[in-house]
């Protein structure tokens, strides 16, 4: 089975590799990942998902986050606390999201980006929409592909 898969595998050509390296979506993704890594180079994708949902839906109820994200309510709670000023264990959080009680029902929490959260979320957008050519992009966005071995599976 493994030998058959290896036989189906081929290396990318130089032209394909050049096309992959110049792909604007990949360059934008690398710029965004570089910004996320500046906050925490081991940030979990769940934290990123929570941050994106709160950024897209300011004032979202925390109780609705499990349906929007697909994560369990306990995961939502843990990640929202990690994005807040303090995590549940009392250690410092990222300070990007704040919980506010709802005006009609103080038991319900609404989620908003903090000033730092708005500034942080704005950084990837600016880096990803920069109209400069690929060679003028920040060094991590281009060097992220240096020394990468590319292989493509062909069926």
TrEMBL record:
InterPro entries: WH-like_DNA-bd_sf, WH_DNA-bd_sf. This is MarR family transcriptional regulator. It comes from Devosia psychrophila.
